Amino acid sequence: MSPSSSFARPDGPVVPSRRRFVQSIAVGGALSGLGYWPGAVAAQSRFREASVLSGTEFDLTIGEAPVDVTGRTRPATLVNGSLPAPVLRWREGDTVTLRVTNRLAATSSIHWHGILLPAGMDGVPGLSFNGIQPGETFVYRFPVTQSGTYWYHSHSRFQEQTGVYGAIVIEPRGGERFRAERDHVVLLSDWTDENPETLFANLKKMSDYYNFNQLTAADFARDVSRMGLEKAMAKRRMWSRMRMNPTDLTDVTAATYTYLMNGAAPDGNWTALFNRGEKVRLRFINGSAMSIFDVRIPGLKMTVVSADGQDVEPVSVDEFRISTAETYDVIVEPKDDRAYTVFAQSIDRSGFARGTLAPRPGMVAEVPALDAPQWLTMTDMMGAMTMGGMHDHGAMEKPAGQGAADHAMPSMKPAAGAEPHAMHDAPAAAAAADPHAGHAMKSSDATRSGTSDMPGMGSTPMARHARTEYGPGVDMRVDMPRTNIDDPGIGLRDNGRRVLTYADLHTIGGPLDPRGPGREIELHLTGNMERFMWSFDGQKFSDARPLHFRHGERLRVVLVNDTMMPHPIHLHGLWSEMESPSGEFQVRKHTIMVQPAQRITYLVNADALGHWAYHCHLLYHMEAGMFRTVVVS
Amino acid sequence: MRAPAIVIQRPLRAALFALASSLSLSLWLPLAALAQASADHAGHAMPAASATPGVAAPAMDHSKMDHSKMDHSTMGSSTKDSAKPPAAGPSMDMGAMMKSMQGGTPPPDARDPDAYADGLTHGPMPGMDMADNDAYTHVLLNQFELFKGRDGSGQALDAQAWFGTDRNKLWLKASGERSGGRLGATRLEGLWNHAIAAYWGLQTGIRHDVGDGPSRTWAAFGVQGLAPYWFEVEATAYAGPRGRTALRLEAEYELLLTQRLILQPDVEVNLYGKNDPERGIGRGVSDIDVGLRLRYEITRKFAPYVGVVYSRKFGNTASYARAAGERVSDTQVVAGIRIWF
Prior knowledge:
The complex is a heterodimer. The model of chain A is unreliable at 1-50 and 388-458 (pLDDT under 50). The N and C termini of chain A lie far apart (51 Å). Chain A is mostly beta strands. In chain A, α5 (217-227) packs across α6. By secondary structure, chain B is of the alpha+beta class. In chain B, 22% of the residues lie in helices and 42% in strands. Chain B contains seven helices and 14 strands. Chain B has helices at residues 5-23, 32-45, 53-56, 59-70, 80-83, 88-101, 315-323, and strands at residues 136-149, 152-164, 168-179, 182-183, 186-197, 200-210, 216-227, 231-239, 245-252, 255-256, 261-272, 284-296, 302-313, 329-340. In chain B, strands 1-2-3-5-6-7-8-9-11-12-13-14 form a twelve-stranded antiparallel beta barrel. In chain B, β1 (136-149) and β2 form a beta hairpin. In chain B, α4 packs antiparallel against α6 (88-101). Chain B is globular. Chains A and B meet through α4, α5, α6, α10 and β23 of A and α4, α6, β5 and β10 of B.
């Protein structure tokens, strides 16, 4: 394929031959040099030929095609024969028409993630429509009322895992608020050579199937020699007693996944070009099925300007965590004539996606080593309870290389030399002779009435568990979740880098609606790691009834994560306007990652009638039942 | 069940000790674990029975306990808590917290999960193809091996298979051996496994014994699951015609030496309520098997192993064996593969 093909036909679909497509993965590094495309329209490097479609009319064909990501040719489901699917560029205010043809043997669908549209256009089989039957073309048509970075993917079974995902970039009517000379989509994803149905079955039969970072006797021996037998045992006691694994950071790891950046494996080295001194906008999208990435570009500060397509007050960071289905736009300004590595390591540190920003084709920069994986902390297991000083000191002990402050929140740095368990009230701790003095609860009445005061944390409400959380589908409950949103999360705490947290995100312009919530809905994120069951309130999708949002109301959703894994929770068709712990408007998102043992609240304007999907965006959690229907009527 | 608890105790303790000593390689097995385990699933096995306070106490009780603990910072007044050395307090709290975090029964004021539905139900639209209630098939040849002992050599199998959804499964078990071309005592079970707690399933069905004498059929009732400290536990009671009863306890542990090299100790104890001389089985504790297998997981699903198994007969069972000129105890060397799919 000539490298100019997509220049020649920017508005129409270009379907590369299968053979060229496969080659392009294998020779991605060599082709990347052709990706120079000056100006902000150049969303995509030339690494993926024919991958940008723009205009108002689109023809998308979902079909099966073999791809070779790892050296083995495996079946994939692709849109227009491309992995990832073509980038769709829309303009705010246009009405777009998308004719989606299903050439698969199974029912298919496309969901436009984060896009506000009529419920019938949302693309969830069983809720918005019947799905697109084999051989059928479904015509999506809706006005584009927003701008920013979004994505699209299949909402049918595991087709998203096998390749049906692509980027959406919507140009604002009035031009970008934050202008940049270059504009690149950076779509992160995960690829497996296994059939995802097999992968899911493996997890059902052995939930730690892909975890090759489990506790071993060798680790134990090392801890014994380092901290003594008693502490080494104490460190493990609680986890073992609860049958929980402190290294259970993600269900599917690089043991089967290859992490991709714009479809390129790390060796493929997806490359984007810049001229020294230019502003480069990178539109990060996590289009993976199950992976949470920590992204950084060593040598460059990243200015986050948009989250989930919504402009935010710019914040400069070294690193950010992007959960599945989230998007972040960052602007970087490389000052030197050198290459920079775009490094996205998975949350469990089993692997990474990688690409390069370079002034000229063919350049590479050093690829950082993966960080050491860390144990989940008591905070990840018990939320605010451990912050009250009730933790088992031995069990709090961290593996080598972690700061003692790991289990505290970053905003609550201890005074130098303070005991870890004294830091919950840092000012008092420095003065207190008793390390337990000065923490948390002032009166038991506060807790009984539903909240308690914890310095620096706002109030800590007690979780109200549902009756259905006491069955076989739930392996733990957090009575007193943490409410702070300034914790970068496991593996990023005190790593010496400035890491983005939700506390840093402030949507420009404030909330959509000045009204406060008329009522509150509390939902718990629940699961049983051992059985690989996932649910809301202990009820899998097929056991649960819909959630009713009354049309026109503004309500507060309270999510409490009763598991030890982060869950990116996505509400279709309606914005989630996240609140700070003290109840002020924070950031508008379509997907909110709730950390282990954390309580998050957000307001929703129920202004779009219809049936909407509401689910954890970890694909295998969703398929396992962590899914609800929201009915706005 | 005729086998009284006093009779059980000594051999059970012996079994525990054997298991513990094999694990002491790793230094970190709390001896109390199995005892805890049985207590734990006793609680779970009978959810309807009046709750053991420790197992099923509602969350609110614990939170009350918890903050009485938390108060100690601000308390100048003399309660026991503030006088207590800090080291003693936290682990007690941890225990209480852990209990309120897992299992139990819902408090009376627990949230109604259907309240937000306002009476709505799912619409009739087809097409939702979720995997949340799919049935799966799992077959595990846990032990599939050749053995060689002083009493002879042969082949042994210990396998389980299930078919079903998260909550309900058909569960098949087979365990037996062949030696000198003859089928030894072999147990076949067909059970309905119903999930009753996060880590436990209740199993009901039938057991059929073949080989080594006339066949026997039993009704089976038991639990299988994961006890605290990661012990895989099976405890099944059996009742057969003519007042025959039996109890079988099995516990297994996986100690990871590396991510792929895994040491697997296991212990199995059989008890019977009546003598069954035709099958060489005596009343009381009849036999114990203690195994230690070291496997290498080439893949998760395929792992060759080597190991040793110590087995011993007790009481009348031992007498029948002696009378038949067989050994009362034996140590076998085993080699096999562990396969699942």
